[in-house]
Design a protein that fits this description.
Elements: E1 7-12, H1 21-29, E2 49-53, E3 56-60, H2 69-73, E4 79-81, E5 87-89, H3 99-103, E6 110-111, E7 120-121, H4 127-131, H5 137-141, E8 147-151, H6 152-165, E9 185-188, H7 207-215, H8 223-261
Parallel strand pairs: 1-9
Antiparallel strand pairs: 1-8, 2-3, 4-5, 6-7
Bound molecules: iron/sulfur cluster (SF4) (3 copies).
One iron/sulfur cluster (SF4) binds next to α1 and α5.
């Protein structure tokens, strides 16, 4: 496993007051509007969501796994894990097979079913902001420091410090420390994570298990891959044709305007 000193988020549900500033900041940062009240869960229009469960405010977002299954199953490397922490997605490479959605142990990626050329959608850990030396938008917006950003080893130590200093305040587990081999998003909670709807995920990296499972489906990685590669080529070709048609239309309009003026 790569042991780069990657970044992380520590999300402490005991500090969250449910203001949804994190949701608003995420929507705005990604050009998705600013209506946090319309966000009821993760979707192709919401990369993070905040819901209340038995008096606890629960945030959902991509966990940016240290060894991500979505990366390992993608046949065209549309998903990549960066050394800084974010698992990022390149829509121009995606051929729409949606293996990533099936492989994610946390059920995170969503799909733009309503678009003619759909993409997979999930939190990008504000990779562009991180590259510019900034924290994530949700971190910057949180007035309670319920979400904090920093190197994963430091945040993990901070999480354990909180558990030790206030044992009555916390359920004694850092969710994300070991789940799926460890994730960049770490959570603290006042109650058991299962009670908040968090999945109980094995404490070992899942890519090898996922690949083994896929190999048991005859031809899925060979014949299936070839078929999907063909579909991907057709999609790319369709986009090229659409771009060329738009350019021709624009040129025709320009000529009409020119003729009308002269
Ligand atoms: S949580 Fe799911 S989508 Fe996010 S990095 Fe892990 S496997 Fe990929
Ligand atoms: S890290 Fe960025 S993309 Fe992810 S939930 Fe926070 S603001 Fe949204
Ligand atoms: S901004 Fe902070 S306090 Fe407000 S909902 Fe988000 S995590 Fe909770």
């Amino acid at each position: 496993m790569a042991l780069v000193r990657s970044n992380a988020l520590l999300i402490d549900f005991t500090r969250c007051i449910g203001c949804k500033e994190c949701v608003v900041a995420c929507l705005v940062e990604h050009g998705l509007g600013d209506d946090a009240e319309a966000v009821t869960g993760l979707s192709s229009r919401a990369l993070t969501a905040l819901t209340e469960r038995d008096g606890v405010y629960v945030r959902q977002l991509c966990r940016h796994c240290l060894t991500p299954s979505c990366v390992s199953v993608c046949p065209v490397e549309a998903f990549t894990k960066t050394p800084e922490g974010p698992v990022v997605y390149d829509a121009s490479r995606c051929m729409g097979c949606r293996y990533c959605m099936q492989a994610c142990p946390f059920g995170i990626p969503k799909y733009e079913w309503d678009k003619p050329v759909p993409a997979v959608v999930k939190c990008d850990f504000c990779a562009a902001r991180q590259a510019a030396g900034k924290p994530t938008a949700c971190t910057e917006a949180c007035p309670e420091e319920a979400t904090v950003f920093g190197p994963r080893d430091e945040l993990l130590a901070e999480a354990h410090r909180r558990l030790a200093e206030e044992p009555g305040r916390y359920y004694q587990h850092v969710y994300g420390e070991s789940e799926a081999g460890g994730t960049a998003i770490l959570f603290l909670s006042p109650v058991a994570f299962e009670d908040l709807g968090f999945r109980s995920v094995a404490g070992e990296p899942l890519p090898a298990l996922t690949a083994a499972a896929l190999e048991k489906i005859p031809g899925i990685l060979s014949i299936g891959g070839a078929v999907l590669a063909g579909i991907w080529w057709i999609t790319q070709r369709r986009d090229e044709v659409a771009r060329a048609e738009r350019a021709e239309e624009a040129a025709a309009h320009e000529e009409e305007d020119h003729n009308a003026r002269s």
